[in-house]
Amino acid sequence: MTTRRESIISNIVTALSGTSGVGTRIYRSRVEAMARGESPAIVVEPISDTAQENTSLPTLDWSLVVRIAVIVRGIAPDQLADAVIQSLHSKVMADITLGGYAMDIQPQSVNWELIEADQPAGVVMCDYVIRYRTSLSNLASVN
Fold it and tell me: Exposed, middle or buried: residue 84 (CB in 10 Å: 0-12, 13-18, 19+)?
């Protein structure tokens, strides 16, 4: 059985399908470097997950931080990434329950890293906080 966390991350990757400008270059937890021809691209990865016991129910309330990084190459990479960011944000926020696994999703921050390379590059990191609930003893269910 898959945990609710894994289902949430999988639903984010699925929701990003068709994001403007990236085609099929949407990766889950990719750690290897990208070749020039692989950008623009999106990488989805979990950053942290924090639990808090719900005192009135035998459940845990979780706050999962997921990073959606946009990788681009070209002059003014922050401008190149803008349309991709607009598209991905609309797709992620279209269903704040992420297929019924989450209670809420909120944007947390956006950070830019501009990199000098053979061609200017940029990584724009969009962090979202997803709140969801599990039972105390089973990360795959609420009951």
Answer: buried
